[in-house]
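Feature request, filed as a ticket because there's no other form

It would be nice if the structure record came with a short human-readable summary line next to the tokens. Right now we just get the raw output. Example of a typical job, pasted below so the devs can see what we mean:
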Amino acid sequence: MESPSTDAQLVAATLSGSLAAFEALVLRHQDRLYLQALRYMRAKEEAQDALQDAFLKAFNQLENLKEHSRFPSWMSQILRNICLNRLRDNRRRQAMSVVEVTYPGEHPEQPVIRNAAFKELLSRLPAKSAQAFILHYLEGYSIQDVALQVRITPSGVKQRLYRARRQLQEEVTLMAKDDRNKHDLPEGFAAQTIVRLLQQGKRDRLYMRMDDARSRFREVLEMSPDHPEALMELGRTYDPIKGPSEEETATLQRAAKAAPDSIEVALELTARWASDQEKQAPAIEKCLALCSLRLAKAPDDLVALTAQAQMFLWKGDFEAMEEVARHAVTLAPKNQQCLNYLALSLARQTRWDEAYPVYETVYELDRKTVWAYVALRQMGSCLAFHRGDWDRAVGMQEKVWNLTGRPNEASNLIYFYGQAGLVEKAKALFEKVKDHRHPARVYEIVGEVKN
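Raw output as currently delivered:
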């Protein structure tokens, strides 16, 4: 009788009591599996130990293998789990010991990192940036103390720390996106990276750093191509005056397929169809229905309340919008978005004397956000067109221009300058943005012929 030669035959023989058959399986697969273990553990001794444990576990659990021919992939899975568990245990021990650092001299340019988990990452930094990072974040020295130790100014230390943080963040993100590294990372690392990128992207958008926000959300989508929240956030990261582009709309539609019950996505799609009543009307009703379902379960849900307020705005029901916005403001009196909806509902009812102080509150809470920008625009419009106070309106619009640098805001400021009799200022600003296409009234103010 021929000796068994296939994996399935060797497994069957092992289960029948043949140790020689299992030894044959070990000899057949050990080289491939050792290389697999080495990719995880990096050190030869640790890879050998992991492989030995894996074969022992496989021998003890071999009867659980239903399809004997799948022994190679089953064995690989056992080894992978053992390696990952060992890596997680190693990282826990490393986290407890933090980082051991030694310095070869009084003012070292190349500190020596004893912890391998940090060494690989920090080794990618320029030596001086790594030194500042270790002294400040790991050793706990103040900015001033670090400056004294490395003999540069505090502002120089801050610059090095900023560069170090940015580069480390980029390296960590690349690790999370790289399939080859995913199994070398702590459990949940990629998910935590995604959460952090989403939070940073939202903050960038709040402060109108739109390019940075888009970059964050695209990085998430590189890691998780169909991530509903990332699709939605990327799709809604557009100029609040211009509205979403075709590309952003397509992204929102992808988000709608990934998360059909998302209020946020439904809300953003209604903005996209603002100029198309046939498409916007059903989009509004869908969003309102989603809001009603959410509010029936959680009457104080701010996401649903603000979306509902926006839908009433689109429908022109400003009294209903005011009622919802007031409830939202009661729940979150310092939420700029909620306050903005309340002010807008009042303004649309031509109750400008009531709306203006609410916009002032929005602006004073944080002067650099997108909501502060909206509030300034609205206050300027109120002063200019409802009160005829062009001098103060100019001041408001100058802040808007300085905050955003958008050419369309320059158009408004040029017009305001003209109405306030500041024609020379209007002409000087026009020279800076003359390549942009402006409304006809701007060319009239500066005495130019429209191309």
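Something like this underneath would help us a lot:
The CA atoms of residues 135 and 283 lie 55 Å apart.
Residues 92-117, 179-186 have pLDDT under 50 and may be disordered.
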